[in-house]
Design goal:
By secondary structure, the protein is of the alpha/beta class. The chain has 17 helices and 16 strands. The protein has an 8-stranded parallel barrel with strand order 2-3-4-5-6-7-8-9, surrounded by 8 helices. Strands 11-12-13 form a 3-stranded antiparallel sheet. Bound molecules: 3-methyl-2-oxobutanoic acid and zinc ion.
Length: 501
Protein backbone atom coordinates (compact mmCIF):
# COMPACT_ATOMS: atom_id res chain seq x y z
CA UNK A 1 0.00 0.00 0.00
CA UNK A 2 1.23 3.50 -0.84
CA UNK A 3 2.09 5.99 1.88
CA UNK A 4 0.19 9.22 2.19
CA UNK A 5 2.06 12.26 0.87
CA UNK A 6 1.01 15.44 2.66
CA UNK A 7 0.55 18.50 0.48
CA UNK A 8 1.68 21.68 2.22
CA UNK A 9 0.66 24.72 0.20
CA UNK A 10 2.65 27.92 0.68
CA UNK A 11 1.01 30.05 -2.05
CA UNK A 12 -0.12 32.49 0.64
CA UNK A 13 3.31 32.77 2.28
CA UNK A 14 6.30 31.97 0.03
CA UNK A 15 4.19 32.45 -3.12
CA UNK A 16 2.84 35.77 -1.99
CA UNK A 17 6.33 37.23 -1.57
CA UNK A 18 6.41 38.02 -5.31
CA UNK A 19 6.77 41.82 -5.64
CA UNK A 20 3.57 43.44 -6.85
CA UNK A 21 1.38 40.35 -6.29
CA UNK A 22 0.24 40.90 -2.72
CA UNK A 23 -3.30 39.93 -1.80
CA UNK A 24 -5.63 41.52 0.72
CA UNK A 25 -7.24 39.43 3.47
CA UNK A 26 -10.49 38.86 1.57
CA UNK A 27 -8.58 37.58 -1.45
CA UNK A 28 -6.41 35.35 0.74
CA UNK A 29 -9.54 33.81 2.25
CA UNK A 30 -10.80 33.07 -1.26
CA UNK A 31 -7.54 31.32 -2.09
CA UNK A 32 -7.55 29.42 1.21
CA UNK A 33 -11.09 28.14 0.55
CA UNK A 34 -10.07 27.06 -2.95
CA UNK A 35 -7.08 25.21 -1.45
CA UNK A 36 -9.42 23.47 0.98
CA UNK A 37 -11.62 22.31 -1.90
CA UNK A 38 -8.55 21.18 -3.78
CA UNK A 39 -7.70 18.86 -0.89
CA UNK A 40 -4.52 20.50 0.40
CA UNK A 41 -3.54 19.12 3.84
CA UNK A 42 -1.70 22.14 5.24
CA UNK A 43 -2.10 25.81 4.31
CA UNK A 44 0.79 28.08 5.22
CA UNK A 45 -1.25 31.23 5.75
CA UNK A 46 1.49 33.78 6.45
CA UNK A 47 4.35 35.09 8.55
CA UNK A 48 2.39 36.86 11.33
CA UNK A 49 5.22 38.93 12.85
CA UNK A 50 6.08 40.43 9.45
CA UNK A 51 3.10 42.83 9.29
CA UNK A 52 -0.33 43.47 10.85
CA UNK A 53 -1.83 42.48 7.47
CA UNK A 54 -0.15 39.07 7.58
CA UNK A 55 -1.19 38.58 11.21
CA UNK A 56 -4.80 39.42 10.37
CA UNK A 57 -4.81 37.10 7.35
CA UNK A 58 -3.68 34.16 9.48
CA UNK A 59 -6.47 34.96 11.99
CA UNK A 60 -9.16 35.21 9.31
CA UNK A 61 -8.01 32.17 7.33
CA UNK A 62 -8.00 30.18 10.58
CA UNK A 63 -11.64 31.10 11.07
CA UNK A 64 -12.66 30.51 7.44
CA UNK A 65 -11.12 27.10 6.82
CA UNK A 66 -12.40 23.88 8.38
CA UNK A 67 -10.28 20.81 7.98
CA UNK A 68 -6.78 21.68 6.64
CA UNK A 69 -4.09 22.50 9.18
CA UNK A 70 -3.23 26.20 9.27
CA UNK A 71 0.44 26.93 9.54
CA UNK A 72 2.24 30.16 10.48
CA UNK A 73 5.91 30.89 9.80
CA UNK A 74 8.37 32.25 12.35
CA UNK A 75 12.09 32.76 12.79
CA UNK A 76 13.68 30.90 15.70
CA UNK A 77 12.79 33.85 17.90
CA UNK A 78 10.42 33.85 20.89
CA UNK A 79 8.50 36.99 19.93
CA UNK A 80 7.80 35.54 16.44
CA UNK A 81 6.53 32.34 18.00
CA UNK A 82 4.30 34.20 20.49
CA UNK A 83 2.86 36.22 17.62
CA UNK A 84 2.25 33.11 15.45
CA UNK A 85 0.54 31.29 18.32
CA UNK A 86 -1.77 34.26 18.87
CA UNK A 87 -2.59 34.51 15.16
CA UNK A 88 -3.43 30.80 15.09
CA UNK A 89 -5.79 30.93 18.07
CA UNK A 90 -8.93 30.21 15.98
CA UNK A 91 -7.44 27.43 13.82
CA UNK A 92 -9.06 24.03 14.28
CA UNK A 93 -5.72 22.37 13.49
CA UNK A 94 -2.64 24.52 13.94
CA UNK A 95 1.05 24.30 13.22
CA UNK A 96 4.00 26.61 13.89
CA UNK A 97 6.76 26.49 11.28
CA UNK A 98 9.94 27.73 12.89
CA UNK A 99 13.56 27.48 11.81
CA UNK A 100 16.99 28.91 11.20
CA UNK A 101 19.72 28.89 8.53
CA UNK A 102 22.03 25.89 8.78
CA UNK A 103 24.48 26.29 5.87
CA UNK A 104 27.95 27.58 6.71
CA UNK A 105 27.28 30.76 4.79
CA UNK A 106 24.07 31.46 6.76
CA UNK A 107 25.80 30.63 10.06
CA UNK A 108 28.77 32.87 9.33
CA UNK A 109 27.30 35.81 7.41
CA UNK A 110 23.68 35.93 8.50
CA UNK A 111 24.07 34.99 12.16
CA UNK A 112 27.78 35.51 12.86
CA UNK A 113 27.44 32.35 14.91
CA UNK A 114 28.74 28.79 15.24
CA UNK A 115 27.27 25.39 14.37
CA UNK A 116 26.87 24.51 18.07
CA UNK A 117 25.00 27.72 18.82
CA UNK A 118 22.69 27.22 15.80
CA UNK A 119 21.72 23.76 17.05
CA UNK A 120 20.96 25.23 20.50
CA UNK A 121 18.86 28.04 19.04
CA UNK A 122 16.99 25.62 16.76
CA UNK A 123 16.14 23.20 19.59
CA UNK A 124 15.17 26.03 21.96
CA UNK A 125 12.79 27.52 19.37
CA UNK A 126 11.13 24.16 18.75
CA UNK A 127 10.71 23.54 22.50
CA UNK A 128 9.26 27.00 22.96
CA UNK A 129 6.83 26.53 20.06
CA UNK A 130 5.76 23.11 21.37
CA UNK A 131 4.58 24.83 24.54
CA UNK A 132 2.25 26.92 22.39
CA UNK A 133 0.89 24.38 19.87
CA UNK A 134 0.88 20.60 19.47
CA UNK A 135 2.39 20.49 16.02
CA UNK A 136 5.73 22.09 15.20
CA UNK A 137 7.56 21.97 11.89
CA UNK A 138 11.22 22.94 11.76
CA UNK A 139 12.96 24.37 8.65
CA UNK A 140 16.71 24.24 8.14
CA UNK A 141 17.06 27.22 5.82
CA UNK A 142 19.54 26.62 2.97
CA UNK A 143 19.58 22.90 3.81
CA UNK A 144 20.35 22.37 0.12
CA UNK A 145 23.86 23.73 0.73
CA UNK A 146 24.26 22.39 4.27
CA UNK A 147 26.74 19.57 4.84
CA UNK A 148 24.73 16.36 5.32
CA UNK A 149 26.43 15.18 8.55
CA UNK A 150 25.80 18.52 10.27
CA UNK A 151 22.24 18.68 8.90
CA UNK A 152 21.59 15.22 10.40
CA UNK A 153 22.72 16.52 13.84
CA UNK A 154 20.37 19.49 13.57
CA UNK A 155 17.47 17.27 12.50
CA UNK A 156 18.19 14.82 15.33
CA UNK A 157 18.16 17.60 17.96
CA UNK A 158 15.01 19.32 16.74
CA UNK A 159 13.13 16.00 16.68
CA UNK A 160 14.26 15.42 20.29
CA UNK A 161 12.97 18.93 21.07
CA UNK A 162 9.53 18.02 19.72
CA UNK A 163 9.38 18.82 15.99
CA UNK A 164 7.40 16.22 14.02
CA UNK A 165 7.88 17.61 10.53
CA UNK A 166 11.35 18.58 9.30
CA UNK A 167 11.56 20.83 6.26
CA UNK A 168 14.71 20.52 4.13
CA UNK A 169 14.58 23.64 1.91
CA UNK A 170 16.70 24.02 -1.17
CA UNK A 171 16.37 27.74 -0.53
CA UNK A 172 18.50 28.87 -3.47
CA UNK A 173 17.35 26.21 -5.95
CA UNK A 174 20.95 25.01 -6.29
CA UNK A 175 20.69 21.23 -5.81
CA UNK A 176 20.74 18.65 -8.57
CA UNK A 177 17.85 16.14 -8.33
CA UNK A 178 20.08 13.19 -7.37
CA UNK A 179 21.97 15.34 -4.85
CA UNK A 180 18.73 16.47 -3.18
CA UNK A 181 17.45 12.87 -3.18
CA UNK A 182 20.71 11.65 -1.61
CA UNK A 183 20.36 14.30 1.09
CA UNK A 184 16.88 13.03 1.99
CA UNK A 185 18.11 9.43 1.89
CA UNK A 186 21.11 10.29 4.09
CA UNK A 187 18.85 11.87 6.69
CA UNK A 188 16.41 8.95 6.57
CA UNK A 189 19.31 6.57 7.20
CA UNK A 190 21.20 8.59 9.85
CA UNK A 191 18.54 10.17 12.06
CA UNK A 192 17.05 7.84 14.70
CA UNK A 193 13.88 9.92 15.12
CA UNK A 194 13.09 9.53 11.39
CA UNK A 195 13.73 5.81 11.42
CA UNK A 196 11.51 5.42 14.46
CA UNK A 197 8.72 7.36 12.67
CA UNK A 198 8.68 10.17 15.25
CA UNK A 199 8.93 12.75 12.46
CA UNK A 200 8.66 13.02 8.67
CA UNK A 201 10.78 14.94 6.18
CA UNK A 202 9.36 17.68 3.99
CA UNK A 203 10.69 19.01 0.67
CA UNK A 204 10.75 22.73 -0.08
CA UNK A 205 12.41 23.38 -3.43
CA UNK A 206 12.98 26.61 -5.29
CA UNK A 207 13.10 26.75 -9.06
CA UNK A 208 16.14 28.93 -9.79
CA UNK A 209 17.60 26.32 -12.13
CA UNK A 210 14.23 24.92 -13.23
CA UNK A 211 14.65 21.81 -11.07
CA UNK A 212 12.16 22.38 -8.25
CA UNK A 213 9.73 19.69 -9.38
CA UNK A 214 12.47 17.17 -10.20
CA UNK A 215 14.11 17.79 -6.82
CA UNK A 216 10.80 17.40 -5.00
CA UNK A 217 10.03 14.10 -6.72
CA UNK A 218 13.55 12.91 -5.98
CA UNK A 219 12.97 13.81 -2.32
CA UNK A 220 9.70 11.84 -2.26
CA UNK A 221 11.23 8.77 -3.91
CA UNK A 222 13.92 8.85 -1.22
CA UNK A 223 11.55 9.08 1.72
CA UNK A 224 10.08 12.58 2.16
CA UNK A 225 6.38 12.43 3.04
CA UNK A 226 5.41 16.08 2.84
CA UNK A 227 5.95 18.44 -0.12
CA UNK A 228 5.82 22.24 0.03
CA UNK A 229 4.34 23.71 -3.12
CA UNK A 230 2.52 26.69 -4.59
CA UNK A 231 -0.24 27.05 -7.15
CA UNK A 232 1.24 27.83 -10.59
CA UNK A 233 4.70 27.46 -9.00
CA UNK A 234 4.63 31.11 -7.95
CA UNK A 235 7.15 32.46 -5.48
CA UNK A 236 10.13 34.74 -5.17
CA UNK A 237 12.62 34.76 -8.06
CA UNK A 238 11.90 31.70 -10.24
CA UNK A 239 9.30 30.44 -7.78
CA UNK A 240 8.60 27.24 -5.82
CA UNK A 241 7.64 23.71 -6.82
CA UNK A 242 4.22 23.83 -8.42
CA UNK A 243 1.37 21.94 -6.77
CA UNK A 244 -0.26 20.94 -10.04
CA UNK A 245 2.91 19.35 -11.41
CA UNK A 246 3.46 17.23 -8.30
CA UNK A 247 -0.21 16.19 -8.08
CA UNK A 248 -0.33 15.15 -11.75
CA UNK A 249 3.05 13.40 -11.69
CA UNK A 250 1.84 11.28 -8.80
CA UNK A 251 -1.48 10.60 -10.53
CA UNK A 252 0.09 9.75 -13.92
CA UNK A 253 2.76 7.54 -12.33
CA UNK A 254 0.51 5.91 -9.72
CA UNK A 255 1.87 2.46 -10.53
CA UNK A 256 5.46 3.31 -9.62
CA UNK A 257 5.21 6.14 -7.10
CA UNK A 258 5.36 5.09 -3.43
CA UNK A 259 2.72 7.65 -2.38
CA UNK A 260 -0.79 8.99 -2.95
CA UNK A 261 -2.23 12.43 -2.21
CA UNK A 262 -5.58 13.82 -1.16
CA UNK A 263 -5.69 16.26 -4.09
CA UNK A 264 -8.91 16.43 -6.10
CA UNK A 265 -7.16 17.07 -9.41
CA UNK A 266 -10.33 18.36 -11.09
CA UNK A 267 -9.99 21.48 -8.94
CA UNK A 268 -6.51 22.25 -10.29
CA UNK A 269 -7.55 24.37 -13.26
CA UNK A 270 -10.03 26.59 -11.35
CA UNK A 271 -7.52 27.09 -8.52
CA UNK A 272 -4.83 28.03 -11.01
CA UNK A 273 -7.08 30.59 -12.73
CA UNK A 274 -8.17 32.04 -9.38
CA UNK A 275 -4.60 32.57 -8.13
CA UNK A 276 -3.45 33.95 -11.48
CA UNK A 277 -6.35 36.38 -11.61
CA UNK A 278 -6.21 37.58 -7.99
CA UNK A 279 -2.45 38.05 -8.12
CA UNK A 280 -2.55 39.56 -11.62
CA UNK A 281 0.11 37.07 -12.52
CA UNK A 282 -0.25 35.47 -15.95
CA UNK A 283 0.53 31.76 -16.29
CA UNK A 284 3.09 31.17 -19.03
CA UNK A 285 1.27 29.51 -21.98
CA UNK A 286 3.63 26.52 -22.06
CA UNK A 287 3.49 25.93 -18.29
CA UNK A 288 3.07 22.22 -17.54
CA UNK A 289 -0.48 21.15 -16.58
CA UNK A 290 -2.05 24.65 -16.33
CA UNK A 291 -0.60 26.61 -19.27
CA UNK A 292 -3.04 27.55 -22.05
CA UNK A 293 -1.09 25.40 -24.50
CA UNK A 294 -0.67 22.41 -22.18
CA UNK A 295 -3.37 20.46 -24.01
CA UNK A 296 -3.36 22.24 -27.39
CA UNK A 297 -2.10 20.28 -30.36
CA UNK A 298 -1.17 22.68 -33.12
CA UNK A 299 1.11 20.63 -35.36
CA UNK A 300 -0.74 18.74 -38.08
CA UNK A 301 0.93 15.43 -37.21
CA UNK A 302 -0.07 15.74 -33.54
CA UNK A 303 -3.65 16.76 -34.38
CA UNK A 304 -4.01 13.77 -36.65
CA UNK A 305 -2.70 11.41 -33.95
CA UNK A 306 -4.94 12.91 -31.27
CA UNK A 307 -8.03 12.65 -33.48
CA UNK A 308 -7.34 8.97 -34.12
CA UNK A 309 -6.62 8.16 -30.48
CA UNK A 310 -6.18 10.81 -27.83
CA UNK A 311 -3.56 8.76 -25.96
CA UNK A 312 -1.17 9.02 -28.91
CA UNK A 313 0.00 12.40 -27.70
CA UNK A 314 -1.85 13.12 -24.43
CA UNK A 315 -0.71 11.54 -21.17
CA UNK A 316 -3.37 13.37 -19.16
CA UNK A 317 -7.06 13.86 -19.78
CA UNK A 318 -7.77 17.62 -19.62
CA UNK A 319 -10.92 16.76 -17.62
CA UNK A 320 -8.70 15.27 -14.89
CA UNK A 321 -7.30 18.73 -14.17
CA UNK A 322 -10.74 20.36 -14.39
CA UNK A 323 -10.68 21.62 -17.97
CA UNK A 324 -14.06 21.09 -19.53
CA UNK A 325 -14.20 23.09 -22.73
CA UNK A 326 -18.02 22.97 -22.82
CA UNK A 327 -18.52 24.49 -19.42
CA UNK A 328 -16.07 27.34 -19.44
CA UNK A 329 -17.63 29.61 -22.03
CA UNK A 330 -20.57 31.85 -21.15
CA UNK A 331 -22.39 34.18 -23.56
CA UNK A 332 -24.83 37.10 -23.35
CA UNK A 333 -27.60 34.50 -23.15
CA UNK A 334 -26.22 32.92 -19.99
CA UNK A 335 -28.24 33.76 -16.91
CA UNK A 336 -27.24 34.98 -13.48
CA UNK A 337 -27.38 31.39 -12.14
CA UNK A 338 -24.85 30.20 -14.74
CA UNK A 339 -22.53 33.06 -13.82
CA UNK A 340 -22.92 32.34 -10.11
CA UNK A 341 -22.26 28.64 -10.65
CA UNK A 342 -19.17 29.16 -12.79
CA UNK A 343 -17.72 31.68 -10.34
CA UNK A 344 -18.32 29.28 -7.47
CA UNK A 345 -16.48 26.52 -9.37
CA UNK A 346 -13.64 29.04 -9.66
CA UNK A 347 -13.69 29.58 -5.89
CA UNK A 348 -15.56 32.91 -5.87
CA UNK A 349 -18.77 33.10 -3.82
CA UNK A 350 -20.67 36.36 -4.36
CA UNK A 351 -23.29 37.98 -2.14
CA UNK A 352 -26.51 38.87 -4.02
CA UNK A 353 -25.67 42.59 -4.38
CA UNK A 354 -22.18 41.92 -5.72
CA UNK A 355 -23.56 39.20 -8.00
CA UNK A 356 -26.06 41.66 -9.47
CA UNK A 357 -23.34 44.21 -10.17
CA UNK A 358 -21.05 41.57 -11.64
CA UNK A 359 -23.89 40.30 -13.82
CA UNK A 360 -24.49 43.81 -15.19
CA UNK A 361 -20.78 44.10 -16.01
CA UNK A 362 -20.94 40.60 -17.51
CA UNK A 363 -23.74 41.64 -19.89
CA UNK A 364 -21.86 44.81 -20.87
CA UNK A 365 -18.75 42.78 -21.69
CA UNK A 366 -20.77 40.08 -23.45
CA UNK A 367 -22.05 42.82 -25.74
CA UNK A 368 -18.49 43.57 -26.81
CA UNK A 369 -17.19 40.02 -26.78
CA UNK A 370 -19.22 36.99 -27.85
CA UNK A 371 -17.83 34.35 -25.49
CA UNK A 372 -16.64 34.93 -21.93
CA UNK A 373 -14.16 32.51 -20.41
CA UNK A 374 -12.98 31.88 -16.83
CA UNK A 375 -10.40 34.67 -16.92
CA UNK A 376 -13.01 37.19 -18.06
CA UNK A 377 -15.36 36.13 -15.25
CA UNK A 378 -12.66 36.35 -12.59
CA UNK A 379 -11.72 39.77 -13.90
CA UNK A 380 -15.32 40.95 -13.65
CA UNK A 381 -15.76 39.53 -10.16
CA UNK A 382 -12.69 41.45 -8.98
CA UNK A 383 -13.33 44.70 -10.86
CA UNK A 384 -15.31 46.41 -8.10
CA UNK A 385 -12.03 47.17 -6.33
CA UNK A 386 -11.60 50.32 -8.46
CA UNK A 387 -14.75 52.07 -7.24
CA UNK A 388 -13.27 53.92 -4.27
CA UNK A 389 -9.96 54.83 -5.84
CA UNK A 390 -8.45 58.31 -5.43
CA UNK A 391 -7.82 58.63 -9.18
CA UNK A 392 -10.36 57.24 -11.64
CA UNK A 393 -10.51 57.25 -15.43
CA UNK A 394 -13.76 58.90 -16.52
CA UNK A 395 -13.18 58.87 -20.27
CA UNK A 396 -10.45 58.58 -22.86
CA UNK A 397 -10.61 59.51 -26.52
CA UNK A 398 -7.77 58.71 -28.86
CA UNK A 399 -7.13 59.50 -32.51
CA UNK A 400 -4.47 57.36 -34.07
CA UNK A 401 -3.52 55.52 -37.24
CA UNK A 402 -1.02 55.48 -40.07
CA UNK A 403 0.13 58.94 -41.21
CA UNK A 404 -1.49 60.88 -38.33
CA UNK A 405 -0.05 62.15 -35.06
CA UNK A 406 -1.69 60.24 -32.19
CA UNK A 407 -3.72 62.56 -29.95
CA UNK A 408 -5.44 61.68 -26.67
CA UNK A 409 -8.03 63.56 -24.62
CA UNK A 410 -8.40 62.30 -21.08
CA UNK A 411 -10.89 63.01 -18.29
CA UNK A 412 -9.95 61.97 -14.76
CA UNK A 413 -11.75 62.12 -11.44
CA UNK A 414 -9.22 62.92 -8.72
CA UNK A 415 -10.61 62.92 -5.18
CA UNK A 416 -14.07 63.52 -6.66
CA UNK A 417 -13.01 66.50 -8.80
CA UNK A 418 -12.99 66.31 -12.61
CA UNK A 419 -9.88 67.26 -14.61
CA UNK A 420 -9.33 67.19 -18.37
CA UNK A 421 -6.19 67.31 -20.51
CA UNK A 422 -4.94 66.42 -23.99
CA UNK A 423 -1.61 65.12 -25.22
CA UNK A 424 0.20 64.02 -28.34
CA UNK A 425 2.73 61.22 -28.55
CA UNK A 426 4.46 58.73 -30.80
CA UNK A 427 1.58 56.27 -30.30
CA UNK A 428 -1.86 56.23 -28.63
CA UNK A 429 -0.53 54.96 -25.29
CA UNK A 430 2.24 57.55 -25.22
CA UNK A 431 -0.24 60.33 -26.06
CA UNK A 432 -2.64 59.15 -23.32
CA UNK A 433 0.08 58.92 -20.65
CA UNK A 434 1.34 62.41 -21.60
CA UNK A 435 -2.19 63.74 -21.20
CA UNK A 436 -2.54 61.96 -17.86
CA UNK A 437 0.76 63.41 -16.63
CA UNK A 438 -0.53 66.91 -17.22
CA UNK A 439 -3.14 66.23 -14.55
CA UNK A 440 -1.12 64.04 -12.19
CA UNK A 441 2.00 66.14 -11.81
CA UNK A 442 4.19 63.62 -10.05
CA UNK A 443 7.66 62.50 -11.03
CA UNK A 444 7.09 58.98 -12.39
CA UNK A 445 8.84 56.77 -14.91
CA UNK A 446 7.43 53.78 -16.74
CA UNK A 447 9.89 50.93 -16.18
CA UNK A 448 8.16 47.95 -17.73
CA UNK A 449 4.95 47.18 -19.57
CA UNK A 450 3.49 43.83 -20.66
CA UNK A 451 0.41 43.60 -22.84
CA UNK A 452 -1.39 40.31 -23.13
CA UNK A 453 -4.61 39.10 -24.72
CA UNK A 454 -6.52 36.79 -22.39
CA UNK A 455 -7.44 34.04 -24.83
CA UNK A 456 -8.08 34.47 -28.52
CA UNK A 457 -9.93 36.60 -31.03
CA UNK A 458 -9.63 40.30 -31.86
CA UNK A 459 -12.57 41.04 -29.54
CA UNK A 460 -10.65 39.66 -26.58
CA UNK A 461 -10.02 41.37 -23.25
CA UNK A 462 -6.50 42.70 -23.00
CA UNK A 463 -4.46 42.64 -19.77
CA UNK A 464 -1.73 45.16 -19.10
CA UNK A 465 0.87 44.85 -16.34
CA UNK A 466 3.18 47.78 -15.69
CA UNK A 467 5.88 48.92 -13.31
CA UNK A 468 6.26 52.62 -12.55
CA UNK A 469 9.07 54.18 -10.55
CA UNK A 470 8.09 56.99 -8.20
CA UNK A 471 10.03 58.38 -5.26
CA UNK A 472 12.68 55.61 -5.54
CA UNK A 473 10.01 52.98 -5.24
CA UNK A 474 8.65 50.54 -7.84
CA UNK A 475 4.86 50.30 -8.06
CA UNK A 476 3.05 47.51 -9.89
CA UNK A 477 -0.17 48.23 -11.76
CA UNK A 478 -2.72 46.25 -13.69
CA UNK A 479 -5.51 47.13 -16.11
CA UNK A 480 -7.83 45.18 -18.37
CA UNK A 481 -10.25 46.22 -21.09
CA UNK A 482 -11.26 45.26 -24.61
CA UNK A 483 -9.48 48.49 -25.60
CA UNK A 484 -5.73 48.16 -25.38
CA UNK A 485 -5.10 51.88 -24.75
CA UNK A 486 -7.73 52.06 -22.00
CA UNK A 487 -6.23 48.95 -20.36
CA UNK A 488 -2.77 50.60 -20.44
CA UNK A 489 -4.02 53.84 -18.91
CA UNK A 490 -6.00 51.91 -16.26
CA UNK A 491 -2.80 50.02 -15.36
CA UNK A 492 -0.94 53.34 -15.02
CA UNK A 493 -3.70 54.75 -12.83
CA UNK A 494 -3.60 51.58 -10.72
CA UNK A 495 0.05 52.38 -9.95
CA UNK A 496 -0.73 56.01 -9.15
CA UNK A 497 -3.43 54.91 -6.71
CA UNK A 498 -0.78 52.96 -4.84
CA UNK A 499 1.48 56.01 -4.40
CA UNK A 500 1.49 57.45 -0.92
CA UNK A 501 -0.65 60.56 -1.47
O1 LIG B 1 13.07 28.81 1.01
C1 LIG B 1 13.14 28.73 2.25
O2 LIG B 1 14.15 28.36 2.84
C2 LIG B 1 11.95 29.10 3.01
C3 LIG B 1 11.95 28.83 4.48
C4 LIG B 1 11.66 30.08 5.24
C5 LIG B 1 11.00 27.73 4.81
O3 LIG B 1 10.98 29.58 2.45
ZN1 LIG C 1 11.08 29.16 0.28
Amino acid sequence: MSDRLYIFDTTLRDGEQVPGCQLNTVEKIQVAKALEQLGVDIIEAGFPISSPGDFNSVVEISKAVTWPTICALTRAVQKDIDCAAEALQYAKHKRIHTGIGTSDSHIKYKFNSTREEIIERAAAAVKYARNKVDEVEFYAEDAGRTENAFLAKVVDEVIKAGATIINIPDTTGYCMPWEYGEKIKYLMEHVDGLQAGRAILSTHCHNDLGMATANTISGVVNGARQVEVTINGIGERAGNTSLEEIAMIIKCHQATMPVTTNINTTKIWPSSRLVSSLMNMPVQPNKAVVGKNAFAHSSGIHQDGVLKNVQTYEIMDPKDVGIDENSIVLTARSGRAALKHRLSVLGVELEQEKLDKTYEAFLRLADKKKELNDDDLLMLAGSEKAENNHVQLESLQVTTGKGVTPIAAIRLKVANEIFEAAGIGNGPVDASIKALKQIIRRQMTLKEMTIQAISKGSDDLCKVHIQVEHDNHIYYGFGSDTDIVTASVEAYIDCINKFKH
